[in-house]
Every structure is written in structure tokens, then in C-alpha cells.
Amino acid sequence: MEMFKYQKDFKMDVLKEVGNIGAGNAATALSQLLNKPIDMAVPKVQLLGFEEIAEKVGGAEEVVFAVFLRVEGEAPGNLFFILSPDAARNLLRRVAGISEVSGEELSEMELSALNEIGNILAGSYLSSLADFTSLSMYPTVPALAMDMAGAILSYGLLQFGQMGDDALLIDTTFLEGQDEIEGQFFLIPDPESFPKIFQSLGVPFE
């Protein structure tokens, strides 16, 4: 990947630290919202091409839940928090404490809860990245959709005309007793944003 031609290890360390701090902030925020302890595993972070995102969540035709936000400010981009339907229901049942989750179609309240959890996660990761870089970055109001992964990513492209070629993937895992509930968080900076992010950290982009 061209952006990691130089100082790859350092750049990955920075992105991993952003993921670690973001997960910690998200766990704290969700604990306060739900008034119960929320544990999250140390997230796994990796860089991948935009075209690889759909494959990471099971393929372009895989039906998923996705919370989508636009990042505005000095390093704009797009954010997706993507969950399988089973993971979304487990998250609502075991983390949000909704004892009887609906069947195929989630209720309005369940969709709202899922949207809020995705919003808190996205805001926490984005806040940690903004703190690291001292760049202003803030999310728009989130939108939640259940559709095929390819259709959801295409929606983002149609909305904003372009997306960057590279995405930051943060594998996010909620811990509930012996069980794990996994979701995937994708930050896709606009083409001009990755250089700004690394330059703000004093790291040459190339």
C-alpha cells in the first residue's frame, strides 16, 4: 500500500493506538448510557483497500446492519459500523438489555438503540483520532440501514461522489461473560485526508 511505503510500523502503531483509545472511550460511554459495565476487547486494526471491505463482512451480497456517518472538518471521510443480523440482535439483547428482540424485522425502538450504539462507537473512535492529530473532525447525524453490503457501500459512493481508496478497519468485540459479539468499524478518509492525518502527526506521508 503506497501510503505505507515509509515508516509503516510507526504508522500502524499510531492507528492501533487510536483504535485502543477509541474502544476504551466507547466502553465508558456505553457503560454510562446503559448504567452497566461494558467490556470490549482490544481491537484489531488493519488497513485495506476500499474494494476489500465487502469481502471482510462476508461478500457484497451478504445482508448486514450498518450505521453510516459522514465525517466533516479538516480530514473528511466516511464511517461505517457494520454488524451481521445475528450480531446486531445479540448486541441488543446482551449489551443493550432488550430481553425480547424482534424476529426478522427489528422494531423502531430496537433500530434506534442500534443506531445509538453505532453513533457512540463512531464518535469515540473519531474523537480519539481527532485528539491524536489535533485536526477538527466531527460526525454528521448517523443513518442506519439493513441491506446487502455492496448496496450500502454504493449508497455512500452515491451520496458523496467519491471515497478514498483505503480504509481503516477496526474489529470491535463486545465481551459479555464468555460470549463475544463482533462488529466491524470502517473509516474511509477522503483521498486528501490520509496525508493530512499523518502530516499532523509529524510523519511524512511518503
Helix and strand composition category: alpha+beta
Counted beta strands: 8
H-E string: HEEHEEHHEEHEEH
Distance between the ends? 11 Å
Q: State the CATH topology.
A: Chemotaxis protein chec
What layout of secondary structure does this protein have?
Elements: H1 8-34, E1 39-40, E2 44-49, H2 53-56, E3 63-73, E4 77-83, H3 85-95, H4 108-133, E5 137-139, E6 143-148, H5 149-160, E7 166-176, E8 179-189, H6 193-200
Antiparallel strand pairs: 1-7, 2-7, 3-4, 3-5, 3-6, 4-8, 7-8
Helix pairs in contact: 1-4
Task: Provide structural commentary.
A hairpin with a 2-residue loop joins strand 7 and strand 8 (179-189). Helix 1 packs across helix 4. By secondary structure, the chain is an alpha+beta fold. It has a single domain, classed as CheC-like (Chemotaxis protein chec, 3-Layer(aba) Sandwich). Strands 1, 2, 3, 4, 5, 6, 7 and 8 form an 8-stranded antiparallel beta sheet that branches. The radius of gyration is 16 Å and the shape is globular. The N and C termini lie close together (11 Å). It has 6 helices and 8 strands. Helix content is 43%, strand content 28%.
